[in-house]
Amino acid sequence: MSRPTALVTGAAVRVGRAIALELAASGFDLLLHHRSRPDEIEHVAEGVRAHGGQAHVVAADLGTREGRAAVVDAARTAFGALNLLVNNASVFYPVAFDRIDDDEWDRVLEVNLKAPFVLCRDLLPLLRAADATRFGAPEEQHGVVVHLCDIGADRPVSGHAHYSVSKAGLVMLVRAMAVELSPAVRTVGVSPGQVAWPESYDEATRRALARRIPLGRVGAPEDVARLVRFLTMEAHYLDGVVIPVDGGLHARY
Ligand SMILES: NC(=O)c1ccc[n+]([C@@H]2O[C@H](COP(=O)([O-])OP(=O)(O)OC[C@H]3O[C@@H](n4cnc5c(N)ncnc54)[C@H](OP(=O)(O)O)[C@@H]3O)[C@@H](O)[C@H]2O)c1
Questions:
Q1: How far is the CA of 218 from the centre of ligand 1 (A)?
Q2: Which atom of ligand 1 has the smallest separation from the CA of 152?
Q3: CATH number for the domain harbouring residue 173
Q4: Which residue from 15, 55, 88, 231 puts its CA 20 to 30 A from 244's CA?
Q5: What HEC string does 217-239 produce?
């Protein structure tokens, strides 16, 4: 039997890298997307191959129509069917509300919300062609989509209005896809809390945020990766939900 297939966007580092390697360890062939990290993505590709999987790589700016089309084309070239699409790539940086100009707003929404929609829409034929019975799913179910959301989609962090709105939209995309595309394509979301620090957070901010986490520690990219694997390979009756992986932080707000 051929191996299951997955596309992970933003797969060169951090959470995307962990998801790609977890899937490779679970027997997937991967299409690895990155934007600007040829060396890091090649290391991830080597890691996938070390698990016996195929690793295809595509570089693209998901903030452009051409970039999104390049990822779709690469998936069609690499695979005849897609078991899993993970929309992980994202832009995150603080800008005060009255300093977000039109171009900045558009760019964040394009990468964080429009790109996930376009990839899902244009890869539907590949997702519908996938065999999920190999994981024990009923035969009317085929591909799975996982959107990387954020616990901040419900309760925004000050200084990140464009990002928060994009992630709130992604939560709705999870639900909209579930009601319209299931049972053929099952859609779920994962909302990390603190699993990899943004570079913009200084030490004091990191310590203060970590203290608020009920489990008493920040998470790791691998915590998200294990949840993505479970959602894809085992959670055949979960659909249209967004699951926090945040050490309990969502309960604290
Ligand atoms: N880290 C956390 O604790 C946390 C918390 C809440 C939610 N999340 C969500 O979980 C996901 C992964 O988090 P992360 O911290 O690992 O993400 P990240 O490092 O901030 O970004 C992941 C990747 O997105 C890619 N990207 C950015 N702009 C792009 C563009 N215009 N076109 C294509 N790719 C672009 C980058 O690719 P290149 O590096 O190749 O340029 C980057 O490596 C994200 O969706 C994030 O919003 C994370």
A1: 17
A2: 6
A3: 3.40.50.720
A4: 55
A5: CCCCHHHHHHHHHHHHHCCCCCC
> Averaged over 196-203, what is the pLDDT?
90
Chain-wide mean pLDDT for the chain? 97
Residues touching ligand 1 (Cβ under 6 Å) are 10, 12-16, 34-37, 61-63, 88-92, 111, 148, 150, 192, 194-196
User: What is the C-alpha separation between 220 and 39, in angstroms, rounded?
Assistant: 22
Provide the number of structural domains found in the chain. 1
Task: Provide DSSP, 108-145.
Answer: HHIIIIIHHHHHHHHTHHHHHT---GGGT--TT---EE
Q: Whose CA is nearest to atom 12 of ligand 1?
A: 15
Count of all residues that appear for the chain in the document: 253
Enclosing domain of residue 65: 5-252
Residue range 51-65: mean pLDDT, rounded: 98
For residue 98, the 8-state DSSP code is: G
pTM of this prediction?
Answer: 0.98
Q: Which residues have C-beta within 8 Å of that of residue 204, sequence separation ≥ 6? A: none
| Contact present, 33 and 49 (Cβ < 8 Å) | no
- Catalytic (active-site) positions: 163
Residue 195 predicted with pLDDT over 70: yes
